[in-house]
Write a structure and sequence with these properties.
With 253 residues, the chain is an alpha/beta fold. It is built from 9 helices and 10 strands. Helix content is 30%, strand content 25%. The strands form 2 sheets. Strands 3-2-1-7-8-10-9 form a 7-stranded mixed β-sheet. A 3-stranded mixed β-sheet has the order 4-6-5. The protein is globular, with a radius of gyration of 18 Å. The two termini are 24 Å apart.
Length: 253
């Protein structure tokens, strides 16, 4: 059950928090499956931005065995794990690139915990909110693409799920997908959200929400909320839905 802080936060945004209807899946991946089924999509194209070691690939493939997954991951260690576990599957395409607002070289800050690697340097004092040791141990040059340019270059007509877990780089990735968002080619966006700064110039939930609202997206639900030992809400995940999904499925039920 969400605590009073979270309830007050959503109340400030004009939303009321109520008990989740038992008829709808609590698991975010099950929820995405149900929403896409409502659109008649059984073989989705999924952009897994921040593939890490394939945790999300497994979740999506369990629910969409025929899905075509593009998994973007610039970290050499994580890439090795992805290629080892999924490299022989033609329906899972491992892309050795970061995703940002434009194509070109970038610096990847490699941290003690590789799940916190980011295109953004950590802010001072972020260790209390990052898991384990948040220290940066190296910075390496990698290359990035944008969603719009990748879709054009690889003739991808639509992405049914845009999943992002890139440690503060989510707004950069969305800015590189503006044409795709404007043309309503992405029904679902499942992204990490942050409530306190972990990285320099990192967006918070309200920044992501405001940006996506400009393209007709709205929040469907939030998942996996995490608190620090001092009681501060740190981060979680949010599922945003397009105006079409809201009209045809959510508001119609």
């Amino acid at each position: 059950m969400l605590n009073s802080f979270v309830k007050s936060m959503f109340r400030f945004m004009g939303l009321e928090v109520r008990r989740r209807p038992s008829s709808f899946p609590f698991n975010p991946f099950d929820a995405q499956k149900k929403l896409l089924e409502g659109l008649g999509i059984s073989r989705p194209v999924i952009f897994d931005v921040g593939g890490h070691r394939g945790e999300t690939i497994k979740q999506y493939r369990a629910r969409f065995p025929n899905a075509l997954v593009y998994s973007f991951e610039p970290s050499p260690d994580s890439l090795a794990a992805l290629n080892r576990d999924f490299g022989d599957n033609p329906e899972i395409r491992i892309i050795p690139l970061a995703v940002a607002d434009q194509t070109g070289p970038r610096i990847l800050y490699v941290n003690e915990v590789d799940a916190t690697n980011s295109l953004l340097p950590a802010v001072e004092g972020s260790r209390r909110y990052l898991p384990g040791k948040g220290d940066t141990k190296a910075s390496i040059q990698i290359h990035a693409t944008s969603v719009d340019e990748f879709m054009d270059g690889h003739r991808v007509e639509a992405v049914h799920i845009l999943k992002m877990d890139i440690q503060g780089g989510e707004l950069l990735a969305l800015k590189g997908a503006e044409r795709t968002l404007r043309e309503s080619h992405v029904p679902l966006i499942y992204t990490e959200i942050m409530f306190v700064p972990h990285y320099e110039n990192q967006p918070l939930l309200n920044d992501i929400w405001d940006f996506l609202a400009g393209y007709g997206y709205s929040v469907f639900d939030v998942y996996y909320l995490h608190w620090a030992s001092n009681g501060q809400l740190k981060f979680g995940n949010a599922l945003f839905v397009s105006a079409e999904v809201r009209m045809r499925i959510i508001d119609a039920s």
